[in-house]
Design goal:
The structure holds two protein chains of two kinds.
Chain A (H helix, E strand, L loop, with lengths): L7 E6 L5 E5 L2 H7 L2 H12 L13 E5 L13 E6 L6 E6 L3 H7 L4 E5 L6 E6 L2 E6 L8 H11 L4 E4 L2 H4 L7 E3 L3 E3 L4 H7 L2 E7 L9 H16 L2 H9 L5 H7 L13 H7 L1 H8 E5 L9 E4 L11 E2 L3 H6 L9 H14 L3 H16 L18 H13 L2 H6 L3 H8 L9 E2 L2 E2 L9 H9 L11 H5 L23 H12 L2 H5 L2 H6 L2 H12 L5 H21 L29 H12 L9 H6 L3 H12 L13
Chain B lengths: L3 E2 L3 H12 L2 H6 L4 E9 L10 E8 L2 E7 L2 H5 L3 E6 H8 L5 H6 L3 E4 L2 H6 L1 H11 L4 E2 L4
Parallel strand pairs in B: 1-7, 2-5
Antiparallel strand pairs in B: 2-3, 3-4, 5-6
The chains are: A alpha+beta, B alpha/beta.
The structure holds iron/sulfur cluster.
The site of iron/sulfur cluster has 14 residues of chain A, from helix 22.
Chain lengths: 635, 140
């Protein structure tokens, strides 16, 4: 087996209780590398794609990459994958923290969990051995309580757990790792809940091999030096991901009042990285082996929103529970973040859904009767805190919002649709495509719905990185312009998507020279890849996931931006600008090799060795492009 | 008016005037206090034989000293920005934004990052005004 891999996947059938292992060979890893790319291939080859996402038939696949646990900076990552209960298409969520390296130390590259256990349970893995354990004692507990209980039961284990939201099948339920790291997007916590699987506790003492240990030490030294001298890494260390809000307000990147306002400097002054650092930061915190330590440990010591010391909000959360809902009180964001962490809910989807509810309340499309007396006025944080509990428990009005903004809006009638700002059912991350047209294209074609992490477009378009040695790009791009962006997105996808297969954090990727990352990958695996080999793997990964989505009913009509984003703002840096979606998509389709229906062309798939996918897509290519029932609410 | 030779005291005076005369700068820089030095690495091939040290000082919307200085003075500033000549020229010509150059490692910054981020609007305005000085660069 090449370095970086154990070659072993653990399979757990929760119905029969059968636990087994299978081996993946080097050839397979040379094609798909790891992480969500490996998971996508396993999903495509081994499972009924159109399974009900909230049934036992939907496999939960957890997959590490060859760099996971290698001690190279930013490589604690692993991907959780399944068909998404939120979007109905391919779902994946990458997470840093501690679980990935520990799983590798326990002897596994990944896990596949199928079926639904007859009783609430958790899975315990220790150095190769695995057992399913009854979990009535922790069922109903929040993620922090669950983690504490498992830590006390199984000394020095690493925990992956869901909270009440996952148990109650909230469609944007998250999964928490050791209370500080979250696989948030696409609702995979609900997939665990649907399996009656409360948690996974893992412990390992092994050490994954490296092909060239001396070379690895050199790569580590280069990385440490590059991170030390990187202003990007320095600002993340000092202020966390929220470091970007002040600049984002200037460039028009920050969404305000559910994407309807172009700028508000009082919001960024109140909610940005400097405010978080000066008022609430206790200390910086890191995923395993990461010198950047962008995570925040915060505490609100006094006032109505007091919190214990715990994980602080990221930039995205400072927007969804701050700028998006017109809350100027950072303590309120911290409190909402803590509640989402405990209940186990994705702060992007959840906060965006709350923002939608506030807009509909203001417009009279939701009344006090609908909200069961909750005053959903903009910025009313006590109402938000109450609502978060109702969502997690699916109580009354909370049950409607637990469906996610797209489904909830559909139930509230066509007038509500505009307030749900999503692509393919996934609420948009907090970067405004009107300010950065490339990001708009990236949202439209991202394989998990509107996403800023399935590619490196944020880094390349906003100028955090310049990678002319990897692919052709200009020195600098103008945000609110569509010219030259299709090629930028195409290449930034093929390279950036590797973050989820190599298993390296995007922030670290942006802080290092790409040559250093490539070297680390090669000395770990011994693959001897060049950038072009990596880009082919990235392309294959993208096509594989697109093919899965096509088989699930996605066509070109789903590659669209919501009406709200196609409405120009009247103030701020992006005023008057909307992405030229027609131009962007036609240029991108040509580069990517998609036909008019948005399906990969046969020759492209053949070049990538994806012949089986080609055969399965033949029927889709021949069919009339009719939207499947579950796609009907998608844009 | 004739272009001013870059990195001369005359050029620094013009830069200072631009900022002092800017109503917009005065409005947004109310919170900024502190000196910023600019260190330009030598590039003999492009007509910059030695390191250039520049010192600028700002006080709540006002401007104080703007000097061509020596190493010791430059290193005494609250914030020190350093980089290759060609990068500074690109920034002055507005071919690349200073924040992007910083993030990409083309410029280095020493000083309190939190303070800089909090005042990023002020920093960008200063760089913007630098670009308005009609400049003759050594390799023009
Ligand atoms: S930069 Fe932050 S998120 Fe990324 S690995 Fe380091 S600590 Fe984790």
């Amino acid at each position: 087996m090449p370095g970086g891999y154990t070659g072993l996947f653990l399979t757990v059938d929760l119905i029969s209780g059968k636990i087994s292992r299978f081996v993946l060979e080097e050839e397979f890893f040379r094609l798909h590398i790891g992480g969500s790319a490996v998971a996508a291939r396993l999903f495509l080859d081994g499972f009924p794609l159109d399974c009900d996402p909230l049934s036992g038939a939907n496999p939960l696949i957890i997959s590490t990459g060859p760099m996971t646990g290698s001690a190279f900076p930013g490589t604690s990552r692993f991907s959780v994958c399944a068909r998404s209960p939120l979007t109905g298409i391919w779902g994946e969520s990458a997470c840093g923290g501690t679980f990935g390296p520990e799983l590798k130390r326990a002897g596994y590259d990944g896990l596949i969990i199928t079926g639904r256990a007859p009783f609430p349970c958790y899975l315990r893995i220790e150095d190769g051995a695995a057992e399913i354990i009854e979990a009535s004692e922790i069922w109903g507990k929040d993620i922090y309580e669950t983690t504490d209980l498992l830590w006390s039961k199984h000394r020095s284990c690493r925990v992956l757990a869901i909270g009440p939201a996952g148990e109650n099948l909230v469609r944007f339920a998250s999964i928490g790792n050791d209370k500080g790291h979250f696989a948030g997007r696409t609702g995979l916590g609900a997939v665990m809940g649907a399996k009656n699987l409360k948690a996974i506790a893992v412990k390992g003492t092994g050490h994954p091999e490296k092909a060239d240990k001396e070379g690895f030490k050199q790569a580590l030294r280069s990385a440490a030096e590059e991170i030390r001298s990187s202003a990007f890494a320095g600002s993340l260390h000092a202020m966390g991901s929220d470091a970007g809000m002040d600049l984002g307000m200037m460039t028009g990147d920050v969404p305000i009042r559910n994407w309807t306002v172009g700028e508000d400097y009082d919001l960024s002054a109140a909610l940005g990285g400097p405010a978080l650092t000066e008022k609430y930061l206790v200390k910086a915190h890191a995923c395993t082996h990461c010198p950047i330590a962008c995570k925040r440990v915060v505490r609100v010591a006094e006032g109505p929103y007091r919190t214990e010391e715990g994980p602080g909000p990221e930039y995205e959360t400072c927007c969804t529970f701050g700028t998006m809902i017109m809350n100027y009180d950072l303590a309120g964001v911290i409190k909402a973040n803590e509640l989402c962490n405990r209940y186990g809910m994705d702060t992007i989807s959840c906060g965006s859904t709350v923002a939608m509810a506030m807009e509909l309340f203001e417009k009279g499309l939701l009344s006090g009767r609908d909200t069961e007396g909750l005053d959903m006025a903009w910025g009313n944080m006590p109402a938000v805190f109450t609502l978060l509990g109702k969502i997690a428990r699916r109580e009354g009005f909370g049950g409607l919002l637990a469906e996610g903004s797209a489904r909830a809006a559909e139930r509230l009638g066509s007038a509500a649709a505009e307030a749900s700002v999503h692509v393919k059912g996934l609420e948009l991350p907090m970067h405004d495509p009107r300010a950065f047209h490339g990001m708009g294209l990236a949202y439209m074609v991202s394989n998990r719905g509107g996403c800023h992490l399935q590619h490196a477009v944020m880094g390349t378009e906003q100028g955090m990185v310049s990678w002319p040695q990897v692919f052709t790009m200009k020195d600098s791009y103008t945000g609110p312009e569509s010219e030259d962006k299709a090629a930028l997105v195409f290449h930034s996808e093929n390279f950036g998507i590797l973050g989820n297969s190599l298993a390296i954090c995007h922030y670290v990727l942006y802080s290092l020279k790409p040559e250093t990352v490539l070297k680390a990958f090669n000395v770990i695996t011994g693959f001897g890849f060049g950038f072009s080999d990596l880009m082919v793997c990235g392309t294959r990964d993208w096509m594989l996931k697109r093919g899965i989505n096509n088989l699930l009913g996605v066509t070109s009509r789903n590659d669209a931006l919501p009406k709200r984003i196609m409405t120009a703002l009247t103030e701020g840096a992006a005023a008057g600008s909307v992405p030229d979606t027609k131009k962007l998509l036609s240029e991108y389709y040509a580069l990517r090799g998609l036909d008019k229906q948005g399906i990969p062309k046969e020759d492209r798939l053949r070049e990538l060795g994806l012949d089986a996918l080609n055969r399965r897509l033949a029927a889709v290519r021949a069919a009339e492009p009719v939207a499947k029932e579950e796609m009907k609410w998608q844009n | 008016m004739a272009k001013l030779k870059a990195f001369t005291q005359e050029w620094m005076n013009a830069f200072r005037r631009r900022i002092a005369d800017s109503k917009e700068y005065r409005e947004i820089a109310g919170n900024w206090e502190g000196s910023v030095s600019i260190i330009i690495n030598p590039d003999p091939a492009r007509g910059v034989p030695e390191t250039v040290y520049l010192f600028t000082d700002y006080w709540h919307g006002d401007v104080k000293d703007f000097l061509v200085c020596d190493k010791a003075k430059a290193e005494s500033a609250d914030f020190i920005m350093s980089g290759d000549y060609i990068r500074w020229k690109q920034i002055a010509r507005k071919e690349i934004e200073a924040t992007k150059a910083l993030m990409q490692g083309k410029l280095k910054l020493k000083g309190n990052l939190v303070y800089v981020v909090r005042n990023v609007k002020t920093v960008n305005k200063v760089v913007d005004l630098l670009g308005e000085v009609d400049t003759l660069f050594p390799d023009d």
